Amino acid sequence: MTGAGRVAAPMVEARGVRKSFGRHEVLKGINLTVPTGSVVSLLGPSGSGKSTFLRCINHLETIDGGEIDVAGRLVGYRRQNGKKYELKPAEIAAARRDVGMVFQRFNLFNHLTALENITLAPVLAKGVPKDAAAERARQLLSDVGLADFGGHYPSQLSGGQQQRVAIARALAMDPKLMLFDEPTSALDPELVGDVLDVMRRLAEQGMTMIVVTHEIGFAREVCDSVVFIDDGVVVEEGPPAQVLGNPVHARTRAFLSKVL
Length: 260
Prior knowledge:
This protein is of the alpha/beta class. Helix content is about 35%, strand content about 25%. It has 9 helices and 12 strands. It has helices at about 50-55, 90-95, 115-125, 130-145, 160-170, 190-205, 215-220, 240-245, 250-260, and strands at about 10-20, 25-35, 40-45, 65-70, 75, 75-80, 85, 100, 175-180, 210, 225-230, 235-240. The strands form 3 sheets. A 6-stranded mixed β-sheet has the order 8-9-10-3-11-12, sandwiched between helices. Helix 3 (about 115-125) runs parallel beside helix 5 (about 160-170) and helix 4 (about 130-145) crosses helix 5. The two termini are about 20 Å apart.
């Protein structure tokens, strides 16, 4: 476990986070602290608010109430003279560079090679020279087991390979935090293992990660904390052995009885 036995400052702090779509309140006051260097899995039924909460952390969705801090900075807003002011789009984009996100669908640019997909953001968003970005991209492709696939287009890659390129693309921005939104749910079962192996190595390297997943084995073996969310609230959280092995709440037990 990455965070066992050490005290770390929070990478993410969510306080009373609320989010509605029309009249439907999806998040109903989420409170969660994620220490730096820890790996947290979010479990829960479909529609419980897990993915929405993840998108709020990265300000892909604006929240309707509460606050989120990432690396000590208020997400989407700045405080001045006791008031909060929404950040300008350029300021939001700059802050988002510290957070990498990997989606269910790989969202690669189909007209670019794997290498080009990885180099694009560092060059455009951070001004990294193309040669340096390409060198870093080749190293990242090697890290995710795709050293020989830099010249391949997404259509020439399997789903698992595309997802590993997507992870490398996120890492190319040198994020402080990685968010994974059900990264294996769109993959054939035989391809899941390679993606989870990459995520395990990231955890071993100390990357702070929040993972929405139904991969209970990954949550049990890799994560420092498991958070069960249902109906827009945190129902239960704690070490994997506790939440997965001896859950306190009936809602948690009912969910796990269906997925274990």
